[in-house]
Amino acid sequence: MLHTLRRIVQEVNSTRDLNRVLAIIVQRVKAAIHADVCSVYLADEGAFTLLATDGLNAELVGKVRFPPGSGLVGLVAQRTDPLNLDDAQEHPRFQLFTSLNEERYHSFVGIPITHHREVLGVLVAQSESRVRFSHDIVNFLVTIAAQLAGAIINAQATRQIDESEKTENLETKSSIPKKSSIRHDNRPLLGQPGAPGIAIGRAVSIASSVILESIPDRPIDDIDNEINVFHSALDSVRKDIKSLSYQLLADGLPTEDVAVFDAYLLMLDSNTLIDSTINRIKSGNWAAGALRETILEHIKLFGEMENPYLRERVKDIRDLGQCIFNQMQGINDLPLDKLSEKAIIVAEDISATLLADIEKTNISGIVLKRGSRTSHVAILARAMGIPTVVGVNELPVMQLDGSQLVADGYSGKLYISPTETIIKEYSRLICQEEELSEEIRELNGQPATTTDGINIPLYANTGLVADITPSKHSGAEGIGLYRTEYPFMIRQRFPGEEEQSKIYREALQAFVPRPVVLRTLDIGGDKSLSYFPIEEDNPFLGWRGIRVTLDHPEIFMIQLRAMLIASEGLDNLSVLFPMISTISEVEDAIALLERAYRELLTEGYRIQMPKVGVMVEVPSLVFQIKRIASIVDFISIGTNDLIQYLMAVDRNNASVAELYESLHPAVLNAIKMVVDGSHEAGIPVSVCGEMAGDPLAALLLLGMSIDSLSISVGSLPRVKWMIRNFSHQEAKALMKQALTMKDAHVIKQLLTKELEGKGLGGLIRAGR
Ligand code: PEP
Ligand code: MG
Q1: Model pTM?
Q2: Catalytic pick from 376, 431, 552, 728?
């Protein structure tokens, strides 16, 4: 059964057309369980409609409809429970459609098809006998229905695009009314808010990398063309490798480090790689499939070798294969010619380097299938002020290319080929947003002071992009979190002391005499370095942040020295340690910082010992906060990670994003404990996670008497506006009330009402 199940799911997943998907389901399932009938009913405008059948009268497809609760199909949908009957016709809810030719079937099994708690449809099998379907068959149907939901959603979204395109064409030629589609025209796909703002524009889809193993075989007609595709990909990869190695040599990288590229070039020219791939193309497989076979064969061969050096080459071979494949697919190239102010980038996911390229162009929005509000891509998009929707599970990335979209970065809604009414409404909201932004911008030079005179310094989060300028112009009173990963991520090796110190000095200088908090290297989790791969089953619970740097004092010392050197004569540096989970880690990190400081003094640098802070990101620290606070100068709460570890919700996983709640009472209580504990120890505490940039959450932080907030520059003016409209006393009262509440939902309602009451609703939703 498992084999059959896999085969059906695979076949369905490789098909985009909804009718075809449904046809495969009913035919294959009917055959697999030896039933006489298999049908699928899908929810369509308030009723479950027969959309595919193998066994009943196919002429009634689209015509037989059961509202929820009506007929056996409606009953299954209503109860969201399988229904297995030996004689359906005896059931009080049975409704006979005579022209369906259903009279002769007695046994009936109906399985709800659900997706994120919503019933999408019902899978039904029927047989002539009066014997119930076996438990094995019911379990098989439940398993298959659970796996088919995603494919159905995907195919529905694709049909929506096709139909609206068809309608657009028809509308230009005649006044034929719009055909109804399975998905209501105005119903958006739901994702997560990534960065606030609204984007209206045409989708520009970017293909994402596929792992080698999942490249399918595909028969071809034109062998010569596929051989050309392969050769030109080889040529481009050769050119890329050569220019990269020249550049690295010019950057001063030792020749022996660049030698790996010579090895790549040799492999690229090897007869075995070229000939075996071409032979496979000649026997009828497309270039990508042929390449996969060759590379996997090489990997297997090298992986079994005795010699450890040769065994290590497996990774190089894989990397090279991936490069050639990406080249064939045009992956990782930003289609610059298609980008404009009206373009919305649509992709599975995008890398930091790609975003850095986007930074130089003008686009109106980003929509991603993966990620959530606190993934680093979303953080970066917020810093760049690009409206972004992330975690749209059902996003048909490649089919969307060229489609009209409306992306709402406040609510996470994505409208595909929206109606004129929706476009008009969102255009109106964009105008209001512009007015609001204009007003908020006027606050730039003003302090974030409450109506009863409490000043909350607002600092900027930065570092994921090369350019410090936006932070300088944001009205921030310093940098509260400089993520130092960027200079490490864009290189092919660890950057040296001088390179790092130059970059850090730029940030320190831009804000002197105001404070700049440099966080030490925080790799691992979702931030990886191509030249320092960390392979783990559970990266977020693994070798991350301080755990890596303490294990590699040689790397850590270079960074600490670089930070201190950068601060010479400026003296506005603070150093922050990430991912701390025990007190000894802080002690060890401080010991290394002090060593670096002493070394530099003896080398003649005129520097001051910086302030030292710890990020509270791991729940264990919440319960040791007083002890920690007694050995450092300040605390910075990293809510992005703290929430993920407290709630056991992966911050990047769109499927569980609804559980990732910064307003959850447990999160609020944890933060309050940290704030109170730090204050008792007499040190200041700040929040630097994305929560600080959400005006609703920031209102509660204000109520907890937080000392400062560190925010993505895109969100800074809105938080300032909120602070200037509330008194500290009001915020305290709200915080007290929130802490008595049951869940994030009601707390959010309470805060939203408060903001709307003060005419500040535009801070948290589209419009004024
Ligand atoms: C955090 O975890 O809240 C944080 C600011 O760090 P990062 O988002 O870089 O993990
Ligand atoms: Mg973190």
Answers
A1: 0.74
A2: 376
Tokens of 220: 């071809």
Residue 711 β-bridge partners? 460
- H/E segment holding residue 139: helix 135-173
How far is the CA of 659 from the CAs of 254, 372, 651, in angstroms?
48, 11, 10
Containing 385, the helix (H) or strand (E) segment is: none
116 catalytic, yes or no?
no
For ligand 1, atom 8, the nearest C-alpha belongs to: 640
Are 662 and 745 spatial neighbours (Cβ–Cβ below 8 Å)?
Answer: no
What secondary structure, in 3-state letters, does 574-610 show? EEEECCCCCHHHHHHHHHHHHHHHHHHHHCCCCCCCC
Residue whose pair of structure tokens reads 């990732």 in the numeric block: 660
The CATH homologous superfamily to which domain 189-208+334-433 belongs is Phosphohistidine domain (3.50.30.10)
What is the three-class DSSP state of 457? coil
Q: How far is the CA of 637 from the centre of ligand 2 (A)?
A: 9
Q: Which residues of 421-451 are buried (b: 16+ CB within 10 A; e: fewer)?
A: ebeeebeebbeebeebeeebeebeeeebebe
- 744-757 helix and 728-739 helix, angle to the nearest 10 degrees: 160
Task: Point out the ligand nearest to the CA of residue 462.
Answer: 1
Name the CATH superfamily, with its identifier, for domain 448-742.
Answer: Phosphoenolpyruvate-binding domains (3.20.20.60)
Residue ranges of E strands in 411-467: 413-416, 458-462
**DSSP character at residue 394:** T
Q: Which helix (H) or strand (E) holds 684?
A: none
d(CA 369, CA 655): 11
Q: Which residue in the block uniquely carries the two structure tokens 């569980």? A: 656
- Secondary structure (H, E, C), 317-374: HHHHHHHHHHHHHCCCCCCHHHCCCCEEEEECCCCHHHHHHHHCCCCCEEEECCCCCC
pLDDT at 36: 97
At 173 the pLDDT is: 36
pLDDT in tens, 631-646: 999 999 999 999 999 9
Number of Cβ within 10 Å of residue 672's Cβ equals: 19
Beta bridge partners of 458: 709
Q: Respond yes or no on whether the N-terminal peptide bond of residue 513 is cis (omega within 30° of 0).
A: yes
Strands 404-408 and 107-115: unpaired
Nearest ligand to the CA atom of 579: 2
Own/partner pairs for 704-708, CB < 8 Å, 24+ apart?
Answer: 704/671, 704/672, 704/675, 704/735, 705/675, 705/679, 705/732, 706/456, 706/675, 707/456, 707/457, 708/456, 708/457, 708/458, 708/459, 708/480, 708/684
Q: Which atom of ligand 1 is nearest to the CA of 641?
A: 2
Q: In the CATH hierarchy, which fold is given to the domain comprising 2-161?
A: Beta-Lactamase (3.30.450)
**Are the folds of 212-329 and 448-742 the same?**
no
Assign domain 212-329 to a CATH class.
mainly alpha
Q: Ligand 1 centre and the CA of 640: distance in Å?
A: 5
d(CA 370, CA 50): 32
Report the nearest-CA residue for atom 6 of ligand 1: 638
Instruction: Work out whether the CA dihedral 409, 413, 417, 418 comes out positive or negative.
Output: negative
- Give catalytic status of residue 38 as yes or no: no
Categorise residue 197: left if φ over 0, alpha if ψ from -120 to 50, beta otherwise.
Answer: left
| Residue 254, CA distances (Å) to 247, 529, 548 in order | 12, 19, 25
Q: What is the pLDDT of residues 507-555, one digit of tens each?
A: 999 999 999 999 999 999 877 787 787 888 899 999 999 999 999 999 9
Of all protein residues, the one whose alpha carbon is nearest to atom 1 of ligand 1 is: 638
What is the Å distance from ligand 1's center to 639 Cα? 7
Higher per-residue pLDDT: 2 or 560: 560
Task: Give the confidence band of 331 by pLDDT, cuts at 50, 70, 90.
Answer: low
The span from the CA of 21 to the CA of 396, in Å, is 15
Q: Where do the structural domains in the chain lie, given as residue ranges?
A: 2-161, 189-208+334-433, 212-329, 448-742
Residues with CB under 6 A from ligand 1: 481, 483, 522, 617, 638-641, 688-689
